[in-house]
Amino acid sequence: MSRREFIQAGIALAAADTVMAADATPPASAATGAVSLPPRKGPAVWLDLDQAQLDAAYTQSVFAPNMQQVINRWGNASEVALAHIDAPRRVSYGESKMEMLDLYRTAKTDAPIALFIHGGAWRSGTAREYAFVAEMFVNAGVHCVIPDFSWVQDAGGDLMVVAAQVRRAVAWTWRNAASFGGNPNRLHVMGQSSGAHLAGVVAITDWTREYAMPAAPIRGTLLVSGMYEMKPVRLSVRSSYVNFTDASEDALSPQRHLDRITAPVVLAYGDQETPEFQRQSRDFAAALRTAGKPVEIIRAAGYNHFELMETLGSPYGVFGRAALAQMGLAKG
Fold first, then answer.
1. How many CB atoms lie within 10 A of CB 325?
2. Per residue in 296-323, pLDDT tens?
3. Measured distance CA(151)–CA(157) in Å, rounded
4. b/e map of 46-59 (b: 16 or more CB within 10 Å)?
5. DSSP β-bridge partners for residue 267
6. Under 8 Å between Cβ of 231 and 261
7. Quick one: average pLDDT of 56-77?
8. Cross-sheet strand order for the sheet of 265-270
9. What is the pTM of this model?
């Protein structure tokens, strides 16, 4: 997909996401300008939220009016990055045509590996559009892997298909690390938005049973602005394009399978995100702590959902600093 096509897809996604009842558009606070949920008018369907409130809380464009502007910046930053680093090696990690990944190699050998899973509500985005992420890692001495995978609408609405593809990308990276100068014992998986959800699903994978790999092949997991309990997502407007079942809801809810998590987890979210996305991160962090799992949570002041993603392009950005710190590479 070209950058122009990606931007057009983002515009279409924003338009689709904002199709809701007129009275469901969250008003802005006169005092702060911050967006808030619409007043409750119907029965609660999740916690104390009615349907219009829940739909708004899972619609990023409502809480990030500058969404398209920021996405445009991602595209521009990626074009600049590709002019400064080597083009990625394009590799097949599975049988379907979408099961390809971009491999950006650093000059160092036996180097750590950052595998980044992009967002896009599970239904948009491509690996190439995130080259700006790769530049930071390559310059820090880290190989960067960014997989493509099917958009959920092309998988018949089945997120299990998408999750299986992402797991195969992780398995390919671990098995083939030495072939590109990577250290399989320093593999970190990170994601943003729906990509953070998929990275959370990766974190609860039974690698030995399903892939004949060591039980803990991942050294660390970084989840930014994600979803970790699928019940409210299933109840929201997102069920209009994701075909949830009881089985998939359970299998795709990392918060229900804490015992399977073997690596430290860092969670981050912006304080200008939707209330549900903020709650999802806080609740997952609390559940991990209760389960005795190593976890850190970062609340990024002044950032919305899309602005926080942009910070992975800099070693001094919120997301970028957290990624390098987890890998032991932060510069103070």
1. 18
2. 999 999 999 999 999 999 999 999 999 9
3. 9
4. beebbbbbbbbbbb
5. 223, 297
6. no
7. 95
8. 89-92, 100-104, 143-147, 111-117, 182-192, 220-224, 265-270, 295-300
9. 0.90
Beta-carbon count within 10 A of 92 CB? 11
Q: Could you tell me if 157 and 234 are in contact, meaning their C-beta atoms sit under 8 angstroms apart?
A: no
How many Å apart are CA 49 and CA 313, to the nearest integer?
A: 35
- Residues 38, 51: contact at Cβ < 8 Å? no
User: What are residue 92's DSSP bridge partners?
Assistant: 100
87-122+130-326, CATH topology level: Rossmann fold (3.40.50)
User: pLDDT at residue 3 above 50?
Assistant: no
Using the predicted structure, report yes or no on whether residue 4 has a pLDDT greater than 50: no
For residues 41 and 31, what is the distance between their CA atoms, to the nearest angstrom?
Answer: 23
Interstrand relation of 100-104 and 143-147 (parallel, antiparallel or unpaired): antiparallel
Crossing angle of helices 131-139 and 67-82, rounded to 10°:
50
What 3 state SS string does the chain have? CCHHHHHHHHHHHHHHHCCCCHHHCCCECCCCCCECCCCCCCCCCECCECHHHHHHHCCHHHHCCCHHHHHHHHHHHHHHHHCCCCCCEEEECCCCCCCEEEEECCCCCCEEEEEEECCCCCCCCCHHHHHHHHHHHHHCCCEEEEECCCCHHHHCCCHHHHHHHHHHHHHHHHHHHHHHCEEEEEEEEEEECHHHHHHHHHHCCCHHHHHCCCCCCCCEEEEECCCCCCHHHHHCHHHHCCCCCHHHHHHCCHHHCHHHCCCCEEEEEECCCCHHHHHHHHHHHHHHHHCCCCEEEEEECCCCHHHHHHHHHCCCCHHHHHHHHHCCCCCC
Residue that has been written with the tokens 């959370």 in this structure: 200
Q: Contact 228/284 with Cβ under 8 angstroms? A: yes
Q: How far apart are CA 306 and CA 170, in angstroms?
A: 25
199 vs 33: CA distance, rounded Å:
33
Domain boundaries, the chain: 87-122+130-326
> At residue 123, does pLDDT exceed 80?
yes
